[in-house]
């Protein structure tokens, strides 16, 4: 049976047609965009530009046992290690773990939170990063540096929104490149 995220209020995941609508919504954007479910950070949809910038980051298929996790991708996937400098990748992980630690207890069951954390515990860096999250304020970076497929570090502005595609508890993340091949704009 497929693991399905839920909220304490009893809200259920959207039907499959809703996932298709969300994907079409993202596909209209040229820049990288993804839809996640914070604070658990499940990946709901990504567009082609996001796949290019974040190799291997994909939403779960309908046959997967559980949702795709942005945290698992950041911790373990070679695509995350290729996209981010190690310091920046670790900073992103700390930020997401902080949001998980601070906000998830209000919207998710302890079992759901543990389902997110259990695979992460296999990382030798988990305890250090989790304990750092204990001393932080949840926030999202507004500018990130990411390596493109050619290996060039580029700066991106991050914008988030809770659009109607799909409605809460989903958040759309849009990335806009803020430097050009000839220098910073």
Structural class: alpha+beta
User: What's the number of helices?
Assistant: 7
Report the biggest beta sheet as strand number plus sense, adding barrel if it closes. Answer: 6 strands, antiparallel
Principal-axis shape: globular
Strand order in space, largest sheet? 3-2-1-6-5-4
What ranges have pLDDT less than 50 throughout 5 or more consecutive residues? 1-15
How many angstroms separate the termini? Answer: 49 Å
As a percent range, the share of strand residues is 15-25%
Question: What is the number of strand segments?
Answer: 8
Cα gyration radius (Å): 16 Å
Oligomer: single chain
Helix content: 25-40%
Short note summarizing the structure:
This protein is α+β, with helices and mostly antiparallel strands.
Written overview of the protein:
With 185 residues, this protein is of the alpha+beta class. Helix 5 (86-107) crosses helix 7 (126-133). It has helices spanning 16-27, 48-53, 70-76, 78-83, 86-107, 110-120, 126-133; strands at 33-37, 42-46, 68-69, 143-147, 153-161, 171-177, 179-180, 183-184. Strand 1 (33-37) and strand 2 form a beta hairpin. It is built from seven helices and eight strands, in the order H-E-E-H-E-H-H-H-H-H-E-E-E-E-E.
